[in-house]
Amino acid sequence: MSDTEGVVDFVVVAYREAGHWLVETAPRELGNDLGKLVGLLRERPGDNGSLAFVSVDEDFFYAARLIGDDLRLLLSDVTAATDWPMARDVVERLGLPFPDDDDPAQPAGDLTIFADLGVDPMSLAAICDDLDTYPDELLLRIATRAGFGAQLDDALP
Asked: pTM for this one?
């Protein structure tokens, strides 16, 4: 395992087939390679696309959602890009400027990423703003609102 693999807590992929959520863990090293993670999402198109949650060092998470060719990304804390290569990749893919060390912690990317699943942008921003909560708990909140909390809880290590 490489040093960067060790900091990825987990990678989880979720998608709906025949109206039922399927949630599975994926190799942690995919959390370090956005291109390969998107490739995995392409293999699981589901009824309405697929999504991935990546938790990093019990510090932040990023989410990717692929619907057809439309890739949507969310980074729970933009300041993570100052320290973590995978967060820099997300910020770069979003076309955002890299944060400074003194920038405030705030989400970056598409806050409407899960709106059609019942997670409105204001609720998603509030979840990401809870800096005292671990990423797995934040992701479980999102998944619960989207309708697959129990499946995510079962899949988490």
From this structure: 0.92
